[in-house]
Amino acid sequence: MNVTATHPYVAALLAGSAALPKSPAAWLDARRAAALERANALSVPTTRDEEWRFTDLTPLTKLQVQPVAAAIKVSAADIATHVVPEAAMRLVFVDGVPAPELAQQGALPAGVTVIAMSDALKSHAALVEPHLAKLAGVGQELFTALNTAFLQHGVFIHLSKDAQLKAPIHLLFVAAGNGVAAYPRCLIVAESGAEACVIEDYVALGDEAYLTNAVTEIAVAPNASLRHIKLQRESQKAFHISNCAVTLAKDARFQSHAVTLGARLSRNNLNISQQGEGVNVEIDGLALIGGRQTADTHTLVDHAKAHGICRQTHKTIVGGAGHAVFNGKVFVREGAQLTDSSQQSRNLLLSDKARVDTKPQLEIFADDVKCAHGAAVGQLDAEHLFYLKSRGLPEAQARNLLTYAFGAEIIDHIPVPSLVAALEKLVMARTEASL
User: Fold this and answer.
1) Is the dihedral of CA 250, 269, 325, 380 positive or negative?
2) The whole model's pTM is what?
3) I want to staple 45 with a disulfide (CB 3.0 to 4.6 A). Which of 49, 215, 388, 435 is the partner?
4) Other CB atoms closer than 10 Å to residue 21's CB: what's the count?
């Protein structure tokens, strides 16, 4: 592959793409080549681009990163605090490279396949080919194009018709090196009537500077149900950019829980496409940041068919000189009658230097719908604070309790008890540090 990128930083990122081995599937090589060509033509977004006008990527362009050939050795003890006991199975990646020695190979019900992407391309190509690098199109999205150009490692999860998996699948992505670019790819396909929960978990072992550029593609067939939990607890010097594309068929159900705590700069894109009538979507998001962190969340719910239901709540807690961004768009196409979609953005500022830019949007081209959105930005409620102080709590403890409760409301919706306990403990520690 000849790299002729027009932007110097894109050229630097793509420098290692020529060393990628050929994939087992010729069609994937073609898609990688097309993505490489597209990445060459794109530039790093700037604040002059509408979709990035609140988030400056200049700090990222000063960081030189490349994928690793082999992962740093990580022991089971290193990841012990990130283990989810309820998980039916765990796959682990270190700096984007599979670490099978750290995996937990549990017994899965019939019809449930969880396999490394490199193996899936050999054994399940017919199931992978219709979706991989198809749901998340590159278009004007540079980072999706880069991920696809480097597409090699990742996970394929397939749920056959009516397959039921009660325990969650845990995908643990561990950052251990410095100056690393990781390009994890997840593909989840739920056939009709299937049900499962997938935890996509990004953690760091140290405080290194690196780039995680993740893409997840999810296809939910008629009457299937998928719960997707995305946790981002990366290094405070890291950059984390993720794109998740979801397609929902008739009567499909999708629940998303996203918790953002780490990274110097993070961007989380969630695009949901309703392709059949009667879908039900729930989206919960929480960003808890401080220092000079930036956490940017963009969501799009595209109601293309009738009788769609969506409930979205996104909360941010911003301390120090942190900067949170939320841009949520609900798009109701012509003919998508009886859509019922609502969106709430609630933001808590803990300091005078903290900043939030929130932009909930509705675009409606059908006349028989019920849609609403709202946004609120403020500090802790003085009356609530007074009430707790009047009951004998010191002011610092009262403020900490109110801040914790604001974030815990989102975390408590996650149906994995050990994960909720770990996140609430982390949120409590972070709120104490911010006050």
Assistant:
1) positive
2) 0.95
3) 49
4) 7
Lowest mean pLDDT among 75-84, 219-228, 373-382: 373-382
| Cα R_g (the chain), whole angstroms | 21
Residue 361 phi/psi, 5° resolution? -135, 145
Amino acid at 148: T
Beta-ladder partners of 191: none
Helices (H) and strands (E) in the chain, counts: 9, 20
Q: What is the distance between the terminal CA atoms of the chain, rounded to a whole angstrom?
A: 52
Distance in angstroms (rounded) separating the CA atoms of residues 258 and 235: 17
- Residue at token pair 């561990």: 174
Mean pLDDT rounded to a whole number for the chain:
93
Pairing of strands 181-182, 97-98: unpaired
Judge contact between 39 and 142, C-beta under 8 A.
yes
DSSP symbol at 16: G
Strands (E), 7-57: none
Angstrom distances, CA of residue 9 to CA of 33, 71, 243, 275, 390? 19, 24, 20, 37, 56
Cα distance between residue 88 and residue 162, in whole Å: 18
Type of residue numbered 418: S
* Pairwise CA distance, residues 32 & 154, whole Å: 15
Hey, CA dihedral for 13, 177, 168, 344, is it positive or negative?
Answer: negative
The pLDDT tens digits for 363-390 are: 999 999 999 999 998 887 777 777 677 8
